[in-house]
C-alpha cells in the first residue's frame, strides 16, 4: 500500500527547508471546523519544527464566506499581498481556484494546496497539491476530511524529524472535523475518529475543557458531542481574519476560553432557531411545486446556514436542493443532492453561468452573478430532466 499522497515528498522538502530558514508561512483555511482544525494541525506542526513560529512568521487567515464566498478570494489576496514573499498554504479550499492561485504567485507567494474537495478536469498551477481525489494520486483511501489529510502529512513529517509530539492533540481535531464534515466513517476515517474521540475524553486543549464544562457535556454521548461541542465550534464568527473557534482551540487563557465558549454555545442555540425559521419559510414556498429540484434564495439567509437547511430539505423531499444567499451583484449557492447524483457534474453542466464552483458529489456550491439566477435554474432543470435516477 502507498503510504503517502502524491506530492508529499515535495511538500516535506519544502517544509524542512523553509522552516529551517524561518520563512514566512500564510495558513489560509476555510472557516468551518474542518478548515480550522486543518490550520491548527499545520500551525502546531510548524511550531514544533521551529519554535520561532510561536511568536512570528506565521500568518493565519480565514476568509469571510458571507462577504466573499468560498475559497481563495481576490479580496483576501488583496489583504495578504503585504505578507509576500512567503509560502501560501490553502487548507480545505483552493482546488478550484485557478485564477486566484496564479494571482497569489504573481504577488510573490509559493502556493501549496491541501484539500479534499472534488477535483475538476484540471488542477490549479500550484507548486504542491495534496488531494487524494487527484487522478494521479496513488493513495487507496480517498474520503478523508482535510484535517485527516493534514494529520497524515504532518505525522509523516514529524516522524522523520524525530521531534517529540502528541498525536492525541491532533487526532481529537481530526475526529471533530471528520464528523462535522459528515465524511463516511469507514476504512481509515473510522479508525481516526475512534482514536480521536478517545483522545477527546482526556483533552489538554483548554478551550475544549471549558466548552465541555459550560455545556455540561456528557462524555461519550453522541448527541451531546454534536450539540455541545461540534455545533458551537461550527457557529463561530470571524474576528480580524481569525475565527472564534480557532481562538478557542488555541488559547492558553482561561478568561478568553470562557468568554468565547459561552458566546459560541449561545450562538449555536440561536443558529438552530434560525435554521428552523428558514426551513419553514422554504417549505411554504415549495408547497405546490412540481419542479424536479428545490431552488430558492433570499437576501436575509446567512451563507453559513443554507447548506444545513438544504440537507434537511433533501432528507424530507429527496430532491436536488439549491439554496441561495442573494446579494446585489453575486449570489452564493449551497447544494445538496440525493444518493446517485453528482452535484459537481450538475454545476459543471452549468459552468458557463458560474463564477466559481466545487465541492463533493452530494454537497457542493457555487458563486454566480445574481442576474443569472433564472438562467441557472432553467439549466439545472434541463440537467436533472436529462439525468433522472433509475427507480
Structure summarized in a few sentences:
The protein is an alpha/beta fold and 391 residues long. The chain has helices spanning 8-20, 33-49, 65-68, 74-80, 98-106, 146-161, 167-180, 187-201, 206-215, 222-233, 244-250, 254-285, 303-317, 343-349, 373-386, and strands at residues 25-29, 58-61, 86-91, 109-114, 128-130, 238-239, 242-243, 294-298, 321-325, 330-336, 354-359, 363-369.
| Terminal-residue CA separation | 38 Å
pLDDT averaged over residues? 93
Radius of gyration: 21 Å
CATH architecture of the largest domain: Alpha-Beta Complex
- Uncertain stretches: none
The ordered string of helix (H) and strand (E) elements is HEHEHHEHEEHHHHHEEHHEHEEHEEH
Which overall shape is indicated by the principal axes computed on the Cα atoms? globular
CATH class of the largest domain: Alpha Beta
Sheet with the most strands: spatial strand order = 2-1-3-4-5
Question: Helicity level, as a percent range?
Answer: 40-55%
Q: How many alpha or pi helices?
A: 15
Kindly identify the CATH topology of the largest domain: inorganic pyrophosphatase (n-terminal core)
Account of the protein in words:
This protein has 391 residues and is α/β, with parallel strands linked by helices. It has 15 helices and 12 strands. The strands form 3 sheets. The protein has a 5-stranded parallel sheet with strand order 2-1-3-4-5, with helices on both faces. The chain has a 5-stranded mixed sheet with strand order 8-9-10-12-11, sandwiched between helices. The longest helix has 32 residues. The two termini are 38 Å apart. 45% of the residues are buried. The model has no long low-confidence stretch (mean pLDDT 93).
Amino acid at each position: 500500500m502507498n503510504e503517502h499522497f502524491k506530492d508529499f515528498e515535495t511538500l516535506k522538502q519544502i517544509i524542512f527547508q523553509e522552516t529551517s530558514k524561518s520563512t514566512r508561512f500564510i495558513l489560509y483555511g476555510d472557516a468551518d471546523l474542518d478548515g480550522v482544525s486543518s490550520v491548527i494541525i499545520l500551525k502546531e506542526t510548524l511550531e514544533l519544527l521551529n519554535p520561532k513560529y510561536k511568536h512570528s512568521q506565521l500568518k493565519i487567515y480565514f476568509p469571510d464566506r458571507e462577504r466573499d464566498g468560498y475559497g481563495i478570494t481576490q479580496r483576501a489576496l488583496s489583504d495578504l499581498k503585504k505578507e509576500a514573499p512567503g509560502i501560501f498554504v490553502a487548507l480545505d479550499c483552493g482546488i478550484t481556484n485557478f485564477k486566484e492561485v496564479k494571482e497569489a504567485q504573481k504577488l510573490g507567494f509559493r502556493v501549496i494546496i491541501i484539500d479534499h474537495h472534488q477535483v475538476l478536469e484540471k488542477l490549479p498551477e500550484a507548486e504542491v497539491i495534496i488531494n487524494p481525489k487527484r487522478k494521479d494520486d496513488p493513495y487507496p483511501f480517498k474520503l478523508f476530511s482535510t484535517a485527516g489529510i493534514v494529520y497524515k502529512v504532518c505525522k509523516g513529517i514529524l516522524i522523520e524529524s524525530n521531534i517529540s509530539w502528541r498525536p492525541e492533540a491532533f487526532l481529537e481535531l481530526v475526529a471533530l472535523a471528520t464528523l462535522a464534515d459528515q465524511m463516511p466513517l469507514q476504512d481509515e476515517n473510522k479508525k481516526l475518529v475512534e482514536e480521536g474521540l478517545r483522545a477527546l475524553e482526556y483533552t489538554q486543549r483548554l478551550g475544549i475543557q471549558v466548552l465541555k464544562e459550560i455545556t455540561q457535556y456528557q462524555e461519550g454521548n453522541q448527541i451531546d458531542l454534536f450539540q455541545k461541542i461540534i455545533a458551537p465550534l461550527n457557529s463561530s464568527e470571524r474576528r480580524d481574519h481569525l475565527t472564534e473557534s480557532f481562538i478557542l482551540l488555541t488559547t492558553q487563557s482561561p478568561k478568553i476560553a470562557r468568554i468565547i465558549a459561552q458566546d459560541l454555545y449561545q450562538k449555536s442555540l440561536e443558529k438552530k432557531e434560525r435554521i428552523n425559521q428558514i426551513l419553514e419559510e422554504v417549505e411554504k414556498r415549495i408547497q405546490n411545486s412540481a419542479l424536479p429540484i428545490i431552488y430558492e434564495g433570499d437576501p436575509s439567509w446567512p451563507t453559513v446556514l443554507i447548506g444545513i437547511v438544504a440537507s434537511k430539505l433533501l432528507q424530507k423531499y429527496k430532491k436536488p436542493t439549491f439554496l441561495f444567499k442573494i446579494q446585489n451583484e453575486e449570489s452564493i449557492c449551497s447544494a445538496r443532492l440525493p444518493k446517485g447524483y453528482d452535484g459537481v457534474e450538475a454545476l459543471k453542466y452549468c459552468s458557463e453561468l458560474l463564477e466559481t464552483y466545487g465541492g463533493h458529489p452530494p454537497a457542493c456550491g457555487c458563486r454566480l452573478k445574481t442576474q443569472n439566477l433564472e438562467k441557472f435554474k432553467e439549466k439545472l432543470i434541463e440537467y436533472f430532466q436529462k439525468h433522472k435516477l433509475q427507480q
